[in-house]
Structure formats: C-alpha cells, structure tokens
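Example 3.
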Amino acid sequence: MSELRVVPGDLVPPRRERRHLLSVEDLTRDDVERLLATAHSFAVSQERETKKLPTLRGRLVINLFYESSTRTSSSFELAAKRLSADTLNVKSAGSSVDKGESLKDTTLTLSSYDPDVIVVRHPEAGAANIVADNTKARVVNAGDGKHQHPTQALLDLYTLREAFGRLDGLHVAIVGDVAHSRVARSLVQALRLVGSDAILVGPPTLVPNGLAPVSHDIAAIADADVIYVLRMQKERMLAGASFVPTLREYTARWGITPERVGAGQRVMHPGPMNRGVELDPRVADSPASLVVDQVRAGLVVRMAVLYDLLTAGPVAVETAVGVA
Ligand code: NCD
C-alpha cells in the first residue's frame, strides 16, 4: 500500500519555477519571449499620460547597490514605482566592507522587512547568489563583478528586436574590454539563446578566448549587423596592470569612428560611455546609435522582470509529495 505524505521539509521547487534572475543561464528561449512580450505591453502603457499601474501595489522592492550605477539603479527604481511597488534604495560604497560576510548580514537585515524582491549589484562575482541563499525574497542580479548582468542582456535583446524586427540570425561584434565585462558575458549567452551570434573584437589583453570567436583586427566589425561597444572597465582591472599602451593608441586602433561604421550597421553601448575613447561622439549621436533606445528599453524590461517574478507565480507545487 502506498500513502502520499507531504513533508514540508522535502518541498522541492518544481524545475521550471524561476525564483530568481541571477544569470542568463536561468532563462529559456520561452522565458525570453514572454519577458520581451510583457516589456512590450509595458512600453505601450508608458505612452499614456498616467504611467503608473497598480500591478505590484503593496509589494516591496529593495535595490541594494554596492557599486555605482546610473541607468540600472534608476530604471529598477522607476520600474518598481511605475508598478506601484514600494521601493527602498540601499547604497554602499563597498570598498571597505568584508564582502562575503557583510553582504550576508545586510541581506539578513533587509530581509526582516519581508521584501518581495531584492535587486543587487556588487563588485564580486557570485554576490547575487549569496543574497539569494540568505533571503526568502526573489533576487535579481543587477551586475556581479565581471560575471553576469542578465537584465542588461534582456534589454539589449529588446532593443535588437525593435531595431531589426527579429532576434535570430543577427551578427554582433562586441568591441573593447570584454575581459572585465559582465555585459559581454551575458550578451554572448543571450544571443546564442535566440539564434544569433557574437564575435569579440579587441586587443589580446582585453579579449579572452573561449567565450565566442575572437578577432584582434578591427576590420572584423565590417560584416556585423551591430557594433556593440564597451568601455575600459578600469575599476575591475588589477591595480598597476596595463592593458593598453595609451588611451590615445587604443582609440586610434579600436575606437568606433564614423569611418568604421558601415551603411546599415547599428551601434550599441551599455553605458557609461567614454566619449572620444571607445566611441566617437559623432557616432554616439548619429542615427546609427541605439544607445538611447537601450536606456528606454531598460525601464520596460525591468518592469517585465519584476512583474514576471512576482505575478507569474510558481508552477503548481505538485512534486512536493513523498511516497512512503
Ligand atoms: C555596465 C555595468 O555596470 O556592467 N553598465 C550598465 O549596467 N549599463 C557596463 C559598464 O559599467 O561599463
């Protein structure tokens, strides 16, 4: 005779339940499609005079930022507000903090307010996982070291679809400091997920092998649909290490100037831009640039991510039975 027993301690989240967004690896192609479709409907709602929706009224979103941020932190805050959630913004300089332990303590402290979502940015890879391990809230990784930045990848996909009308078969040249870039790591995975591809272009000191095809020749950008430009992320470089002889030389060899942008090519940059270093201002401000579209996409994509985590809900907890 068999007897069904529910043992609370044995509750296993169903495989498809997405409790957190820590990495692009957490996403399936279906997840991407659903999130982009939701973001699109939020974009339509943002064209109305009254932009606030009641969807997440009474929910609490905590933005925990241990690293500087303009676009990501402002768009998460505004996304939560546009969905009527309460927001709490906690910033820390981070530099003098013992990262692992204090992050755990901060998470435990903030979790006592019963947040629904904690959005976290931190200079250490794996920080978002530490937060997720210490809270009942859902966790969104807003950038952990040079590891992952999944909402940036999603907003980039959204921008690509708006610009090209499709996501598959696109060829993206990611140019610059890939070595220190979580944006590049997440984007390479996201492009692969939707049937597009990336080539990494830059000097050997800044472009690692093993993520995607690599070229050390700027001419390799010529056949890309999109030139995706990265800044030199000095805060993640080892002190004293030299990755390029001089900025002037870097700009001459790798800077994206009008002469290097072909007809029909589009240019993206996650920000913050160093105008005149990796990207010529004439390109940044040209019709080829999708930079402003990316920022606008950031708001609606982050609304979609918050909405999806909090309202799509877990799949029925049907696996939570033990058979004796
Ligand atoms: C990026 C980041 O912080 O990872 N910026 C962003 O989120 N838009 C890229 C960068 O800092 O260069």
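The first strand starts at residue 4 and ends at 5. The domain at 8-149+295-321 is CATH 3.40.50.1370 (Rossmann fold).
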